[in-house]
Amino acid sequence: MVEFLRKLIEGDNLWGTLDVSPAGRALWRRVRLTVYPPGTTSAERRSLHFAHTWPIGGAILGLLLMVTLGSAWPPAVVVVVVAALYAAGFWLGARLTRPLRNRIRSLVVVSVFVGGGLEEYGDALLLRETTARLRDLDARRREGGIDPARYEAEWAEIYDTLPTGRTTVQV
């Protein structure tokens, strides 16, 4: 139960996120690996998770507020309140994560079907190796095969293999 609650408010992984999403009509998928700096605290992970999930979570909250307040308040007031709340969520997420954002490392790989074949843009090999190492690290942590100090040391080794700064993919 404790692990479930941690995942709910901090995210699936202690080290960061792995997002797989469609990137557009002609593109098959985009994979973005985001690795937090080693030593990221629970409070920092909660802030990063909030900022990461706010676009969808805030939209759902906004819709619920519109339905709830729509019959009691004038529609124009409801729209203004919901829009202000949604914008405030983005501001809050940016404010809470400001000290950490420049230290986060990320890697993006875009896969495209071109002429019947799959082409990958970005460092796909590094992405696959890093993702495999992080999954193995998490599996050993869940099984109790690694102590917290060793977990963070291996996380730091993986973090150091990733490029610094923002990564962009030219397609």
TrEMBL record:
It comes from the Bacteria. InterPro entries: DUF6611. Keywords: Membrane, Transmembrane, Transmembrane helix. The chain crosses the membrane at residues 50-70, 76-94. This is Uncharacterized protein. It comes from Leifsonia tongyongensis.
